[in-house]
Write a structure and sequence with these properties.
Layout (H helix, E strand, L loop, with lengths): L2 H4 L20 E2 L7 E2 L2 H6 L1 H26 L5 H4 L11 H16 L3 H17 L11 H7 L3 H13 L24 H4 L7 H33 L18 H8 L9 H18 L3 H7 L9 H11 L22 H16 L7 H9 L13 H8 L20 E5 L4 H7 L1 H10 L2 E5 L2 H8 L7 E4 L8 H12 L3 E4 L3 H4 L2 H11 L4 E12 L7 H4 L5 E10 L6 E4 L6 E9 L2 E6 L8 H8 L5
Parallel strand pairs: 3-4, 3-5, 5-6, 6-11
Antiparallel strand pairs: 1-2, 7-8, 7-9, 8-10, 9-10, 10-11
Helix pairs in contact: 3-5, 5-6, 6-7, 7-8, 7-15, 8-10, 10-12, 10-15, 13-15, 16-23, 17-21, 19-25, 20-21
Protein name: MYND-type domain-containing protein
Organism: Podospora australis
Keywords: Metal-binding, Zinc, Zinc-finger
């Protein structure tokens, strides 16, 4: 097999200096032994950044040693007599809690050494407590993928799907099966004795996606090999860099052992992956949104201090019937708490799968866009009341721009590089500024939120980049303003850097079925009435060339510019949403023709 396949990296990067990424002559932090440096100079320079986690690791490690020593001197000899049912013995619980916190601190070090040590602890905790009262089986599959141990990951998940812990000899060493078929239909796991928990399903989904990536990669290489054989040439090895992602353990092993005839088609695993996406969404409708878009900050506070305080106090008053602290009791099935916990256990494995461009995360961003819920606020205050009556269900076919009796107020939300926008789209900015009562700029999410709460409200909102797709609270507020009567134009640099997932999810949240289309340069033709009135059309270019990110899935009544009257993609669209208007201009180069188009959408042309 080509050396290209052998040398690829998956998961956590190999041990290296955290400061300069040097991989030779490494030394470890003397205190925690989790972090590597190229020498003492970088170790000393990094000490202040590393101090907090280093102290936590030392504290938990020392405390764990003391608690274990005390248990081993106990007359009951728990490490012999209690194996398999440790948690049911009250005296072992402080030790198990400390071990849980120590392993969590090792993971936070975010190194191969730290994750390996954490995995060792978690695995042994299951050996000691087969009923897994502390839920470490939620954590282990993700760590295995981070360490590129795909086969062990699949075997672990299959074990918990097909084995009832109550049927297992508590003294047995194994909590996994051996060499399961990771390509088998998912029904083999879903129809087992036990229902997989959410985090296990999520990691299984990731594993199937990685397998699909690998199989697609191999099929591409294999087709090239066959092609060169047919023409009588020497087969070419794949060029390093031709594929921008690593080869995982399972498919690589099959290639190494000349078992490629047994490999399924990538399309087969793709179908399994899609099936799992649906299953995860059905199990918990909150999960994919939290995984892709993250949580609001106000929902993600206080957990760390609660964990440390509860462990230190060894408080048994706020526990469930099994003595498990309440904050460790899993969220109810389908709840946001359950989804948040699964994200915590799985996100790193997803982030580390694929290229530096977060290949797996980008993929699920697009593949789960269909699950995005339309934003419908809980009314509070005068503005929310007005917007609630203009929900996404009131999408209209009236594509006439707003008209203004007085010059409108314009807010430009430019979160990535407002100076570039002002320079690159100077003509547009100058025209808007001249025709507006005021044109203000918001360059941070908080500035934009503050501006959107001002009275009188802005009539027109111009969004110049896709950063808003990762600012849920801000996006929701913009949707409120559209539904309440504002005109929102998405243009300028938005199309040049928006991903398929970001695009589709944003418009899905607004309530529009618009999807990101192709990206190319074409001549675009203006649609006439009823899409664009004859009066307005006289002021717009009848056609102009655009290099654009196109939109598809729109109602034809919303199209302003497309290649033809029947084309299913458009470069410029404009639609009613609630009481307001929403426009999209896919042109990424600031063509001359796009300036009057944006002005027309704003009701400022002519």
């Amino acid at each position: 097999m080509s050396e290209f396949f052998r040398s690829s990296i998956y998961g956590l990067v190999p041990e290296r200096c955290v400061d300069c990424h040097e991989t030779s002559g490494l030394v470890q932090c003397d205190d925690c032994n989790m972090i590597s440096y190229c020498g003492t100079a970088h170790r000393d320079e990094h000490r202040s950044d590393h101090h907090k986690i280093c102290e936590e690791i030392k504290t938990y490690r020392n405390d764990l040693q003391l608690k274990e020593a005390a248990l081993r001197t106990h007359p009951a000899d728990f490490f012999t007599t209690g194996v398999g049912s440790f948690w049911s013995i009250r005296e072992t619980r402080p030790y198990m809690m400390t071990r849980l916190n120590a392993a969590s601190a090792y993971v936070e070090a975010d190194t191969v050494r730290g994750v390996e040590e954490a995995l060792s602890h978690y695995t042994d905790m299951i050996r000691l407590d087969r009923s897994d009262h502390l839920g470490v089986r939620n954590i282990i599959p993700g760590l295995l993928l981070r360490l590129r141990r795909e086969q062990e990951c699949y075997d672990f998940i299959k074990y918990w799907a097909t084995t009832n812990p109550k049927d297992v000899n508590p003294a047995a060493d194994s909590t996994t099966i051996k060499s399961g078929n990771a390509f088998e239909p998912i029904e083999e796991l879903l129809n087992g004795k036990e229902e997989l928990i959410l985090s296990q399903l999520v990691i299984l989904t990731l594993l199937k996606l990685r397998l699909r990536f690998d199989l697609s990669k191999y099929e591409t290489y294999h087709r090239g090999y066959i092609h060169t054989r047919q023409w009588g040439n020497v087969p070419l090895a794949p060029t390093p860099g031709l594929f921008d992602r690593p080869m995982g353990e399972i498919v690589k092993k099959a290639i190494d052992e000349n078992r490629t005839a047994s490999l399924p088609a990538a399309s087969t695993i793709q179908a399994q992956y899609q099936q799992l996406l649906d299953i995860v969404h059905a199990r918990n409708p909150h999960f994919w949104e939290l995984m892709v878009e993250g949580e609001d900050k106000e929902d993600d506070e206080g957990n760390d201090s609660e964990r440390v305080e509860a462990e230190n106090e060894e408080d048994t008053t706020d526990c469930d019937d099994h003595g498990v602290p309440r904050f460790l009791v899993p969220g109810a099935p389908g709840s946001k708490k359950e989804a948040s916990e699964a994200v915590e256990h799985c996100a790193d494995a997803w982030e580390e799968s694929g290229t530096a461009l977060r290949e797996a995360m980008a993929r699920i961003g697009a593949d789960t866009a269909a699950y995005v819920a339309v934003y419908n606020p809980s009314p509070s205050g005068e503005d929310a009341v007005s917007s609630s009556h203009a929900s996404a269900s009131t999408l209209g076919h009236d594509t006439a721009p707003m008209t203004w009796s007085t010059p409108p107020r314009i807010l430009t939300i430019s979160l990535q590089d407002d100076d570039y926008i002002k320079m690159r789209y100077e003509d547009l900015v100058t025209e808007l500024d001249a025709k507006a009562a005021t044109m203000d700029w918001a360059t941070t999410s908080q500035d934009a939120l503050n501006a959107l709460n001002l009275q009188p409200a802005y009539n027109i909102i111009l969004i110049t980049d896709p950063a808003i797709t990762h600012q849920k609270k801000l996006l929701n507020r913009v949707i409120d303003r559209i539904r309440a009567g504002a005109t929102v134009i998405i243009a300028c640099g938005f199309g040049s850097s928006v991903s398929q997932g970001e695009f589709n999810r944003m418009f899905g949240r607004i309530g529009l079925p618009w999807k990101r289309g192709s990206y190319h340069r074409k001549w675009m033709h203006l649609r006439g009435p009823p899409n664009v009135s004859a009066k307005l059309a006289r002021h717009l270019p009848p056609r102009y060339s655009q290099k654009a990110v196109y939109v598809c899935g729109m109602d034809q009544s919303a199209v302003w510019y497309a290649e033809s009257d029947t084309h299913d993609e458009a470069a410029v669209v404009f639609a009613s949403v609630g009481s307001g208007k929403l426009g999209y201009v896919g042109d990424i180069n600031g063509e001359v023709g796009s300036t009057p188009v944006v002005l027309a959408m704003c009701g400022l042309l002519g």
